[in-house]
């Protein structure tokens, strides 16, 4: 791993560790000095030393992320070498101090006391200190302990490979997060550029939110990466200790090492079982930087503060007029209300309708005005094979207050909403196959849930029960 890591941070020109790395449009990186010399020979216009892609002096860019990774890798390699040297020093010292004679009786050590975990002579075996103890020959004890050590070594090799792969994946995810941050920042800047100076304050606010999310995400990722690197360092030190110990030909030396440090290193207990690998509990924290509807509907949310300077963003999708006879749809297709009477829940729940349109790709946002209604459901349904079935719904009623109800689940997941929303925002992300609910008055996220039904998806609403006229107000899909 050390050699592999060294090669990854090596300059292709000078073959040394990258110093002040810079990158080209083709994404190859070099030391600044090496690339400057290469360019000087070519009179300010040259080709990449690796892929021969043409570039000029203006194309050279500082790669700060790579520089930080190179610095961290250099420190890691130095620490690894120091730990390996220290481990070898300890093992060498143990080997030199080993002896084949019993210190009490000066007899050759031919036996091994399993109870005390130490080599003994034939006189020691009959001594009262070892009466009733389990005793083996050195050869048998050596074979058993070496098998345990070899098994642990194999586990360490597996851990080493897994941790190397995990660290590489984690570094990739960190780089992807930084690239995603740049793409989202550029998108936000472009959209705000279409507005007047009044919008600058809002731009700063949203960028700060994005950077806060990035900081929280990267903090978790970097803590996980640090944990992996610490585990990898420990694995390699233990790996070096076990390799050196297994190379020992003298039974007494090996078993003395085993009694002093080998047993605790291998992890043998009285009831020996499978050797546990700490790497089994390690996993990569994936890139999940996500702005929700701010990525695709930013201008609409700013429009709420500047009604006269932005185009409408919410999608204009009317509700189907066919469906449950207990539900009435206005001619515009925007409002849905329960008909006068005592509407009860049936085996399928409350009566509901969906939009005429359904979607397989893209992102869509609606706002539904709930006002002061006492009973309603708003969410997303799946429309596989032209048969619509509710998937995930945000519900409100007097029995359970606000809660999430999903297909295939009998439980109702309660939501804690401090301020009663007048409008509910529904953000359908087909790419991530998830739906998010917002208090549309303040754009406060209520909940995000994964969808379980199959594509396509539609917005669906239920105006709830009539409740003797107390819940007769309609649900209205807002158009702006």
TrEMBL record:
Keyword vocabulary terms for this entry: Coiled coil, Metal-binding, Zinc, Zinc-finger
InterPro entries linked to this entry: B30.2/SPRY (IPR001870), B30.2/SPRY_sf (IPR043136), Butyrophylin_SPRY (IPR003879), ConA-like_dom_sf (IPR013320), SPRY_dom (IPR003877), TRIM/RBCC (IPR050143), Znf_B-box (IPR000315), Znf_C3HC4_RING-type (IPR018957)
Source taxon at top rank: Eukaryota
Domain RING-type, residue spans: 11-52
Coiled coil: 135-166
Signal peptide as annotated in the record: none
GO terms of molecular function: zinc ion binding
Ranges where the B box-type domain occurs: 97-138
Domain B30.2/SPRY: 295-480
Keyword flag Ion transport: no
SMART domains assigned to the protein according to its UniProt record, in alphabetical order: BBOX (SM00336), RING (SM00184)
Family: Belongs to the TRIM/RBCC family.
Protein name: Zinc-binding protein A33-like
């Amino acid at each position: 791993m050390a050699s592999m890591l060294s090669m990854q941070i090596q300059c292709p020109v000078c073959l040394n560790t990258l110093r002040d790395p810079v990158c080209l449009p083709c994404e190859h990186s070099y030391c600044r000095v090496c690339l400057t010399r290469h360019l000087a020979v070519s009179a300010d216009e040259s080709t990449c030393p690796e892929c021969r892609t043409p570039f000029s002096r203006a194309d050279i860019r500082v790669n700060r992320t790579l520089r930080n990774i190179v610095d961290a890798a250099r420190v890691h390699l130095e620490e690894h070498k120091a730990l390996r040297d220290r481990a070898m020093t300890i093992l060498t010292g143990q080997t030199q101090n080993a002896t084949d004679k019993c210190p009490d009786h000066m007899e050759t050590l031919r036996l091994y006391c399993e109870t005390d975990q130490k080599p003994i002579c034939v006189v020691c075996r009959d001594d009262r200190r070892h009466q009733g103890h389990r005793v083996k020959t050195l050869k048998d004890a050596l074979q058993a302990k070496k098998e345990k050590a070899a098994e642990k070594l194999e586990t360490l090799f597996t851990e080493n490979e897994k941790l190397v792969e995990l660290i590489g994946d984690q570094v990739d995810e960190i780089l992807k997060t930084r690239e995603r941050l740049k793409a989202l920042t550029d998108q936000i800047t472009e959209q705000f550029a279409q507005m007047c100076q009044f919008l600058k304050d809002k731009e700063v606010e949203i960028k700060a939110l994005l950077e806060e999310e990035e900081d929280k995400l990267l903090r978790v990722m970097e803590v996980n990466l640090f944990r992996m690197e610490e585990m990898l360092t420990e694995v390699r030190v233990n790996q070096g200790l076990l390799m050196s110990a297994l190379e020992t030909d003298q039974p007494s030396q090996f078993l003395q090492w085993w009694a002093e440090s080998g047993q605790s290193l291998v992890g043998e207990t009285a009831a020996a079982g499978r050797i546990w690998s700490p790497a089994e509990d390690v996993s990569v924290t994936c890139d999940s930087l996500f702005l929700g509807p701010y990525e695709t509907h930013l201008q609409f949310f700013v429009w709420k503060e500047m009604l006269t300077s932005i185009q409408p963003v919410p999608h204009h999708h009317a509700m189907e007029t066919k469906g449950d006879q207990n539900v009435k749809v206005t001619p515009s297709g925007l409002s849905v209300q329960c008909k006068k009477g005592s509407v009860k829940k049936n085996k399928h729940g409350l009566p509901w309708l969906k939009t005429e349109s359904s979607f397989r790709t893209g992102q869509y946002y609606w706002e539904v005005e709930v006002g002061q209604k006492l009973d309603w459901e708003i969410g997303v349904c799946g429309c596989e094979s032209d048969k619509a079935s509710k998937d995930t719904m945000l519900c409100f009623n007097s029995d359970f207050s606000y809660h999430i109800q999903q297909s295939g689940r009998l439980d109702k997941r309660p939501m804690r909403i401090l301020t009663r929303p007048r409008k509910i925002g529904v953000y359908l992300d087909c790419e991530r196959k998830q739906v998010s609910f917002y208090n549309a008055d303040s754009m406060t996220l209520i909940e995000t849930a994964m969808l379980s039904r199959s594509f396509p998806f539609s917005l669906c609403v239920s105006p709830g029960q009539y409740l003797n006229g107390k819940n007769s107000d309609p649900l209205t899909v807002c158009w702006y």
